User: Fold these one by one.
Assistant:
Number 1:
Amino acid sequence: MKKLLALALAFAMSLSLAACGGTPASTPASEPAAPASGSSATEEKEPVNLRFYNYALSETAKADWWEETIANFEAEYDWITVEPISVDYNSMVTTLTNDLASGLTADIIYGEISWVPALADAGFIDKPENVLSPDFYAGYYPDVLSAYQYNDGIYGVPHYMTNWLIFVNKDLIEAAGLSMDNFPTTEADLKTWIETLADYYKGTDVSTIFGMTTSEVAATGMALNGLYTAFGGTLFNDDGTLADLNEATNKTALTETLDFCKYLIGNGYTQENLKLKDYRAAFGAGNVCMYIDQSWGYAQIGEVDPNAANFTVTAPLPTQMGTNGKGLSLVSAHTFLFGAGLEDSHKEAIDLFIQYCTSNEVMEGYLNNIGLAFPAHENMADVKISPILEGAAKGANNTVYQSMPAALASVQTELATAALNYCVNGMSLEDTIADYITQAEYYMNQ
């Protein structure tokens, strides 16, 4: 079924490209937008309407911030109207594809790095160097921007970034006699903590000792790839091809990733087939000791308990994971993507809007109270990071580049299937790895 869905989506995108006459990714680059500096609401400007597809508008805490930010921006630049289109996260790519096929346009898309291959291949998005003013574009941190490399260039820019990290309920930890001052730096010590907490909270309302998502969705695939990377594995070569997963280091990392998931599920330290949002809700309710997530997962934690900051802290992944792992993390970033074939007036308006949304003044409250994260642009260099993220901050520099093939989302999501096959369905380790390689190669060859 997953294969049929993937093929159907690819077919729908190819049809929509033909229907809407979208600009192919190979179209020669247009001139970058003129620098935004010096623009003001007092200049004579033709009205511009920006259609802004934004999944965050379907999440309460983020929606309020975005609505206020858009209203404030429009008050300052009164010739620009930002028309927000709210789409659920899991429906964004399909909805966007269908809308473009029907003749609608998309100026800005707010989403994930993993959406780039499908949208770039369909010709729906342009390179930011063709949209943003050069001085502003140069301010993005290179290590984060490199995550957007696809085929012939960079597609998309980060709003902010995070490493994969561990959310910790410090009250539950301390009640069990543990201290964040001695948070584990090795896998062995992490397991000691997990087992200590499991003994202490046996028979209580604490449902999860250490949460690791294994649901068969794209976000889980990203999380499991992040864990595999922490164990020392490489999923894709720098040229975008599938890495040799039978090579000793990669096979060891994949084995240890699957064994770690089985350790968690088999001992009841985590639950099978849960999504990140499930752990966020349970953590906010005080029923989870620790779990792996991206920093902005706190937005949903805070929706459950507005006072969650009183018990929430973070830590980086241990720097010794398994045989070869150094706790390296993949970069995650909430992302601005830009529509293809934009008029110059729209490029100028987009440049102004992105600069506005990437300023210290606008972002400090958000990064501290709603979508906790780390800056990805020098314009936010002076933003004070949330105290909640202080523990995980050093992990933000312990990241590694991963190339982005067209089959990225499918290959990552198959990791969740592999984890469930091994941990729940009784498949042997060797068969699980062999089956995963077969599925990954299938998607890579589409």
Note: The first helix runs from residue 2 to 20.
Number 2:
Amino acid sequence: MNSRRGVFADIYSLVGNVPKGRVITYGLVADFLEQSKGLKVSPRLVGFALHKNKDNKKIPCHRVVFKDGSLSSKFAFGGIEAQRRKLKEEGIAFTSGGRVNLKKCLWKDLKF
């Protein structure tokens, strides 16, 4: 397995554990991988890996947002409105400005 596939597998494993009703940020995924596995991973690489994900039922990439709670305009499975709809269906709270309310919904119990 090449190193990129290994990193992608770690990203998918971590994101796969984010429960319904919670979100995580690209940066938190990257930070956790560095702290737990010593991997130098940028938030941008996390986004790239999630965009390449082929199994959105197993890997809930819609639960990963930017550090300010905004959504990705390049969400791979239907665009930003599909991501917003999926999050709302799971009970995610949004601010009046349309961002995820991270104070209420950020998942901090990071684990593989």
Note: Residues 3-105 form a domain with the Arc Repressor Mutant, subunit A fold (CATH 1.10.10.10).
